[in-house]
Amino acid sequence: MSKYKLLAIDMDGTALTSQKKISPRTNAAVNDLLKRGVHVVASTGRGIDELSDYTEEFRLMNYGILISGGLVYDFFKRTPVTIHPVDEETMFKLIDFGTEERAMIHLLTLHSSVAREDDIQHMDAFDMSIYFNMFNRICLRVDDFKEYIRTHPGEVIKVNLYHRDRASRDRNFERMSKFDLTISFTERNNLEASPRGITKASGLEELCKFLGIDIADTVAIGDGHNDVEILQAAGVGVAMGNARDDIKQLADFVTADNDHDGVAVAIEKFF
């Protein structure tokens, strides 16, 4: 019997194929683990609403490390275990930076995914067209982000800025680096900003403490920049075959890519 008691799996580029689907083999492997009493948790930059397309596949999943660690969530009780909002003054600066670069501004809160209608309808300009269907269905539309933040104090957990090109992204990265933030690169020209010290790894630590599990008895699987900390913190860090080379180099094991059931392959090896 495996010693590992918890598996944390990233979504985009990991559990999801390049077509944003969960393959039958991966779905079966995940749910078999859950039925055996292993905690399998989504470890993702997505918020609750952005997981709604996978409710059936993950119906047995109790917990999620969501919004890049800013929210640890109990799906069964529909309540946060931990939550870490971004402070208001910092968010206002990020909105100014995004506006100056004509970036798509996206807020993730406990309850909502928030964006402008015009940006949603032109997501191809930000190299985000694969997400259009999801954003178009679930996003709360606002025109004035600052007013939204003022009227929803303490609710915004992450700010995403989707840029039109790499130069624009790099200018904002330099500006944002002066603030007390954790900044990750996820999509092609995206910057995601969370409070300093908040990562998927901090979320894993909080969830392990809540469940009474030694973090050494966990496995984490991911492919991107915002997975670095959790791959290093978990007992075993698994990089997807489609991950960048630097992600693979820091992992304990490299599995198959996301279009060839890399999550299922890792489950079969370690569990």
At a glance:
The protein has 271 residues and is an alpha/beta fold. Helix content is 34%, strand content 23%.
Structure commentary:
- By secondary structure, the chain is of the alpha/beta class.
- It has two domains: 6-83 and 199-270, HAD superfamily/HAD-like (Rossmann fold, 3-Layer(aba) Sandwich); 88-195, Hypothetical Protein, Haloacid Dehalogenase-like Hydrolase, Chain: A, domain 2.
- The protein has eleven helices and 14 strands.
- The chain has helices spanning 11-15, 24-35, 88-100, 117-121, 132-138, 145-151, 166-176, 200-211, 228-233, 245-250, 262-270; strands spanning 6-9, 39-43, 63-66, 71-74, 79-83, 104-109, 113-115, 140-141, 156-162, 181-184, 190-195, 218-222, 236-239, 253-254.
- The strands form two sheets. It has an eight-stranded mixed β-sheet, with helices on both faces. The chain has a six-stranded mixed β-sheet with strand order 8-7-6-9-11-10.
- Helix 9 (228-233) links the parallel strand 12 and strand 13 (236-239).
- Helix 2 (24-35) packs parallel to helix 11 (262-270) and helix 3 (88-100) runs antiparallel to helix 6.
- The radius of gyration is 18 Å and the shape is globular.
- The termini are close together.
- The model has no long low-confidence stretch (mean pLDDT 96).
Secondary-structure element sequence? EHHEEEEHEEHHEHEHEEHEHEHEH
Query: What's the CATH superfamily of the largest domain, by name?
Result: HAD superfamily/HAD-like
By CATH, the architecture of the largest domain is named 3-Layer(aba) Sandwich
**Into how many domains do the coordinates divide?**
2
Shape: globular
Query: Largest sheet, if any?
Result: 8 strands, mixed
What is the structural class? alpha/beta
Helical content band: 25-40%
How many angstroms separate the termini?
Answer: 7 Å
**Overall CATH class of the largest domain:** Alpha Beta
How many distinct beta strands? 14
Largest sheet, order of strands side by side? 5-4-3-2-1-12-13-14
